[in-house]
User: Fold these one by one.
Assistant:
Number 1:
Amino acid sequence: MPGKRIAVIGAGVSGLGAIKICLEEGLEPTCFEGTNDIGGLWRYQETTSGRASIYKSATSNTLKEMTTYHDYPSPDYFPNYLHNSRIMEYLRRYAQHFDLTKHIRFLSKVDSMRKRSDFSCTDILVETTGKQESYVFDGIMVCSSLYTGPILPLQNFPGINRFKGQYIHSCEYRSPEKFQGKKIIVVGIGNSGADLAIELSHVASQVYLSTRRGAWIWNRVWDNGMPMDTVLFTHFKTILNKFYPTFLINRWAENKLNARFNHDVYGLLPKHRLLTHQATCGDDLPNHIISGRVLIKSDVREFTETSAIFGDGTEEDVDVVIFATGYTSSFPFLENNATVLDSQHSMFKFVFPPQLEKPTLAFIGILQPVGATIPTSELQRLNKLPSVSGMMADIRQKRKKFEKEFLNNPRDTCRVQYVEYMDEIASEIGAKPNLPSIFLWDPKLAVEIFFGPCTPYQYRLAILTQRERIIKPLRTRTLICDQPPSSVPFWLKSNRLLIHRLFQVLLRVF
């Protein structure tokens, strides 16, 4: 008996994982991809299309051991943070290994989808090389990314229309060569804004980085030179966060970041606390600020023909303005159908719209984890859905928590904590590691899962080679050393003080 027919929209990192999951479940997936290749946002193209895209030098902010599918780790010799070309190489290997490409129809854009009156199936209209074709599917998986069209809020910048220089959105930026000798303002201090300011400062006459509210700056290299993810994204830290008040966690983390460089002195200190808004990854930013290559400025009040006037009254001559002001999330093929998805994009577990008669529509990867997207989107499936009222109650509870913990900002509406969300979904599908049980038959493995980084294969394969895989690409020079290497994992060493403090807290409680 043939399996149910499933349409997968988009062949990016979420779409590839969705195709494979469908095949594992005995379903028949057909993936529609609007471009001529896989990779989605991670595929670099020389030309721009007016949609979300990456620049030539873009590098992942998440550790390679976490930026993988659960049953296909990246090669151990890959660097810990991957350039976009390496991510594409990994995705091609993954697609080839599981023979996914034959299920993808390239240059096929989904124009519309409409549920039949009896909710038995969905009609989809697809445009392929100028021709429209109609298909019928039993279910739909939308994997078209959280980032679609650019946000270019020109109405917030008086005078931009009379500005005689060039202005673009960051999605149009590719490489720095053509900006040689220019005076440039980068508006916005998200990850893209920081990256572009740093890169352009090597060729520009001067780069100004304009920020309205400031930002907390993370760096990939953490204590003892280890990747940030290995220390922060662990089950131990997640449990610790539940015992410590939020203001103490904020204080600890902010002191940690200020110890590297004082955010106030560098003009970056935000009014918000660290955990209330997405931080920015900018390893080299303080080095470029201290050398004067990048100057931090307040928000732009208005533009003249040749200059920008900032909120503090200062004025600077400018040749180019780059708006790193983010992206919208839209699904035009849904035709703004409020019965499918409301204005707040309410979804149960960020996957299922709660008001559907039957759960035949799922959104995969339409979220913003504080961590890697690949493993979170790969886990996004549920064995059984609660009632509509139960789903709405869960949505309202999460929304209330968001309003309490985060700023009222579009960037945070789909934000989830990496380990918490992975554990939440893994519990629903029976894939969460049972630590007490594992400790009884393999204590070493249990310690690794609890204190080590929360890698995707913990939920399926739970291996003990994480430390070696992380260190291998760093050891490109062989050293002769009389002292034998420590057998204690570095994340266990780095957490000794926190473990001691946790036990003190527990003793007071009990």
Number 2:
Amino acid sequence: MLQHSQQINHCLALSYSDLSVWCFACDSYLDAQVIMQLRPVYETAYILKFGEAPPFRSVECSKGDQAEGGASSADS
């Protein structure tokens, strides 16, 4: 996966065993339930693995996050 990441410039990998998302660029796991751009991929993988939609947890932003352009749970 690392070689593919470097050759094709894909920095994310989804593990089908536990549906975790690894970022090669930042060298850490990403939370697919918090990062909205990852949710559709995570949801599709979850449905393919378990046959039903995932139980997404609610995400709340602090006031500091709202000032930086984050959406509050009331906005969603």
Number 3:
Amino acid sequence: MLATSGIRNIMKQGSQEFLLEHLVIEKSIEQSLVFHNGLCNLVTLEINRCWKLKTLKVLSELKQLRRLVLHDCPLLQLDHLPPFLSSLVVYGCHRMLFLDLLQLKRPSLFTELKIMDCKQLMNISGLENLTILETLAISQCPRLLQLGLLPIVPDCVVISGCPKLKVWCEMHSIEPRDEEME
């Protein structure tokens, strides 16, 4: 569990107050991380190599969070999203079955979606609301069946290793790649 009392101590030293905007959590052994109001100014959150992590609690309370990066959290299921997110990068979250972008309060802010190596991912909903999406990269998600229709095709689109998205790619005039993304 991520407690904010320690963070408050870091944020206030003497008479100076610091606002934490970027947080990286690596190799946590926790199964659940809870985010409290001590992180209310957090803009970027990166969670890396947390192999036992299953849930992120109260993530939807991080109203300033714009960028969320999840890397090698194989047991994580992302049930709730921060409401004003503009960038989401997910790599190696093998138990994630779905991603619901309909949770975004301001989808017009969302510009980047990168999903890589999520072996169980089957559905991404809410793409139809992403009117200024600039980057869409989906790679090595072999079970991914459903994506919403895009209102516009982003400038940068890479679909690779997702054999069940062939028809979706054809509908959007996107040429899927056979090689893996970097």
Number 4:
Amino acid sequence: MPCLNISTNVNLDGVDTSSILSEASSQVAKIIKKPESYVMIVLKGSVPISFGGTEQPAAYGELVSIGGLSGDVNKKLSSAIATILESKLSVPKSRFFLKFFDVKGSYFGWNGSTF
């Protein structure tokens, strides 16, 4: 049910995206305390992004979850994902925004129905 969508202007050709996906999936599940079997991570590269007037490496993310989010949890998620992006894609933590959405189960489709 947690879904993390990340867009970055970094070109992902030659990047080990599998390690980014697996680390992000593991961290989201651990921090939100949801089964990793329900976690989805989407990573899009080479997206035109300007941050602070420059096109230096940057990223934007949105995390949608049915519960599990709070001020404290969101800070931990922001830190964990920013650390992954900095270490794997050289996106500085200061050039990454992450938006959080806590939604009702009836607003999240899965398996031909909703949660």
